[in-house]
Amino acid sequence: MRRKLVVGNWKMNGSRLLNAELLAGLDGAGPWVSDVAVCAPYPYLADVALSLQGKRIAWGAQDCSSREAGAYTGDVSAAMLAEFGCKYVIVGHSERRAYHAESDQLVADKAKIALAHNLTPIVCVGETLAEREANQTDVVVKRQMSAVIHTLGHCISQVVVAYEPVWAIGTGKTATPEQAQAVHALLRTQLHAATPKSAEMQLLYGGSVKPDNAATLFSQPDIDGGLIGGASLKVADFAAICRAAG
Ligand code: PGA
Ligand 1 in contact with 126 (CB < 6 A)? Predict the structure, then answer.
């Protein structure tokens, strides 16, 4: 039986005061049956780590460099994150792919270096609206996944995958549970060909998950939780989504 996982992706939001309030609120609202984590902007990670010490909420970063160390101004390495006890790192979020021109291979390299430092990469894949309308959803997500599978080999079983249709992110348009399940099943099949442990892997759905749609999405056979953007910034909403993951 796979454990459910709910991850908050704060994106470029928050302040020290707001983060402290949010985390205190979440601590009061839990614990939950599912695994819960929050991915905060870099400058706040040390604060978040301190606030969550001894709590059942894990934390992660929203990106890491594909390089070990060196002359890469502005980048943050997986080793640095690991030094603070970071558990998760999101790689290949569609906003990074779109605004920073991250390629499938770069995303795969980030996942590889994260694993090398004992972080769990949350690898995001997903199609744009134009790609969905052109019936390219399967081709696109399989291509994105395949770069990571190829680069990680059997270690692919150690990543968390998040299917996030780009057209559903921050738009209020959620994929129907059937649409999301269809892509999750496709990904599970692709992973099955790469690792005997595919049935143990956590595949998350992301894109306008809210308290009122979370339970139906999470009850799909291949959806093991969610990657939550906007709703992770509100204690009541995020807590309700964590509860929905059961
Ligand atoms: P959203 O974002 O929940 O605000 O749609 C999800 C994500 O981008 O991870």
Answer: no
